[in-house]
Write a structure and sequence with these properties.
globular, about 120 residues, alpha+beta, 5 strands, about 30% strand, 3 helices
Length: about 120
């Protein structure tokens, strides 16, 4: 059973989740950022749409909604634990995140995907 929540995970929980998902990023996230610092930034500044399976953070979409003049948010991270791949969780989180950001008054949302990430 999955529960969708907002902004519940702290930096340590986000970091643990990103480490567990690291191999699913293309290229791996740890080759591009220092995971603990990135997790701290997400925990402090991002709107987080989270999927919880009990006490486990199964999925996460982090979006920066901090440009009210431009009224466009930016999705910085989409991640789902490997055990939950192929079940539509990322799509559900993205749609929920879009609705949440729209509810905050943003009209657009951007996402950048590496061309090698065919799944995305």
């Amino acid at each position: 059973m999955i529960e969708i929540a907002y902004n519940r995970a702290d930096a340590a929980r986000v970091a643990a989740h990103l480490r567990a998902c690291d191999g699913s990023f293309v290229p791996s996230l740890s080759t591009r950022v220092e995971l603990e610092a990135y997790a701290a930034k997400i925990a402090q500044f991002a709107e987080r749409t989270e999927a919880w399976s009990g006490a486990q953070l199964a999925g996460l979409v982090a979006a920066y909604a901090n440009d009210p003049e431009r009224r466009t948010a930016f999705i910085t991270s989409v991640s789902v634990l490997p055990a939950w791949h192929g079940q539509g969780l990322a799509s559900k989180l993205l749609l929920t995140c879009i609705a949440r950001v729209r509810g905050l008054g943003y009209e657009g949302i951007e996402l950048e995907v590496d061309v090698r990430n065919t799944a995305a």
